[in-house]
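Batch manifest, entry 17 of 40.
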Amino acid sequence: HYPLRRQRQMCIRDRYTGCLFSNEDLISENLSICFNFQKGGWSGLIFGFYNVDKEGGCGISTKLQESFCNEFESVESSPWWAAYKSYSAANWDEKAFISIESGQMANDMIETISRLYNVFSSVNPSAS
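Output type: structure tokens
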């Protein structure tokens, strides 16, 4: 198991609904793995690498975006996000709520976190 599971920190911030996962390796690059609802009504779900320090940015952004795109088939970025992907409305319908109830959503999130950390590790050799 990689250190992200042992050292993860989760917080829900007042200005949005989401969760952040970090460890020392991610923090050293000013990043957190994040799931975030960008819009009201539990819509606009995105996931990816959140820039913790928007002033300092992320020193591995270009490599991270390339690796992210290879893993998740598309990538977007912004001043707040080094690399992210949006769930389309088609991915967030009544099936999503059924998967929450069954526990499948939690399993999918754990798998996505693992895939995101693998993306990060592929461009940051010091990540353990």
